[in-house]
Design a protein that fits this description.
By secondary structure, the chain is α/β, with parallel strands linked by helices. The protein has two domains: 153 residues, Rossmann fold, CATH 3.40.50; 206 residues, Dihydrodipicolinate Reductase, domain 2. The protein contains eleven helices and 17 strands. The protein has a nine-stranded mixed β-sheet. Helix 5 links the parallel strand 6 and strand 7. Helix 5 packs parallel to helix 6 and helix 6 packs antiparallel against helix 10. The protein is globular and about 55 Å long. The N and C termini lie far apart (46 Å). The structure holds nicotinamide-adenine-dinucleotide (NAD). Nicotinamide-adenine-dinucleotide (NAD) binds next to helix 1.
Amino acid sequence: MKKYRLGVVGQGSRGRGMFRWFSENFEDIVPTAACDIVPKFWYETKENDMTMAERMPQVTFYEDFDEMMAKADLDILMVETPATNHADFCEKGLKAGVHVYSDIPTVRSLEEAQRLWKAQQASDAMFMSGSTTCGWGFILELQNLYKKGLLGEPVAMEAEYIHDCRSLWEATPWRKPHVKWGSMPIRYCTHSLGPLLSILKEDLRKVYCVTTGSKVTDNEFANDYNSAFFQTDSGVVVRMTASFINNCAGCNHSYRIYGTKGYFERIPDKGEGRPPKTIFSSTVSDEMKKLTELPIDFSPYTSEFGKRFESKAANSGHGGADVFLMQWFMEALRSGAKEAPITLRDGLRMTIPGIYAAESVIQGGKTLTIRYPWDDDFEEDAKTYTKTYTN
Ligand SMILES: NC(=O)c1ccc[n+]([C@@H]2O[C@H](COP(=O)([O-])OP(=O)(O)OC[C@H]3O[C@@H](n4cnc5c(N)ncnc54)[C@H](O)[C@@H]3O)[C@@H](O)[C@H]2O)c1
């Protein structure tokens, strides 16, 4: 059996969990190296009474990423650094011919997108966008209904990501608004757009986005709530709202899809006595002509597609979605597939619209054309807009 030497950069709470789950769920993974600029996350921080150093004595810890890449002889690099800081590590991984499993958003700026895209084009290594929400059971079921033709083609789609993240500011300081325009929640759009775009053939082409500015706290740099309208060339409308400073309890992800032949909705958990629901209706299904609640939830293993990985089911990590995506990625790698199940292109399709949406806010709500590294005229935008996003 071929073995894969795994390394990780970023040992915050998510990096520690992801590295452990990856290492514990696959016989062909050899946990080899871990890197963080803060060594205490490896040597001192305890989960279930054990530090990572105690739990994984076979792993070499590095404080310097380049040193890890030079010495560890990795096959797979996992990137779990702050959301503002993924692309440079991913680019170095691809250039070294190492397969990359990266958290999202994929990039922070258009300039990063261009560099990473070029690195992927020149590399034989696989790039997996670890887009957690694309592993949720009800999203896999949405894809299944779409493939079966029960939804038709999307006409309009909506998604909301409402999560008051103020309690995370101390532990993850990158989440706290600290620079003008640096705190636009719409940039963190991948959890919402990833599932929607997985059933949309076209890229999003236009955007208009507005902000409330800062009203809930006295943080002068905050944008409490962003709402964006996107549109494709053929006129499909996507409306997305993101808010990370609010007084709404819970972590609310909702999705609505208006199709030519059906309607799909995911209603999030609204507290005690109001559990989450996934409802669907289709004009071409006798059983589901009326709105019908689907027996499906977060866990990928409650969906038809997810069931094939059931024996490896793990509930940790967003209802099991993270381990499911790792299984999917490993399956592709072992089979010698050229592309990951969720590619770099997929990651950029769900990340770049948020960068343009933030730019639309900065330009006072101007409608902008969205371009991607695979478009001829992307380079000009990468030069024009990059400075605005580096804060
Ligand atoms: N997919 C999901 O559902 C989901 C959920 C939560 C977080 N995330 C993502 O996971 C990532 C990590 O989030 P987190 O909550 O663990 O954040 P965190 O701040 O706890 O962890 C980030 C770690 O990266 C380290 N780091 C920063 N710069 C570094 C560098 N140059 N070299 C090495 N290490 C460096 C930090 O010291 C820190 O330990 C973020 O990208 C976040 O968006 C994804």
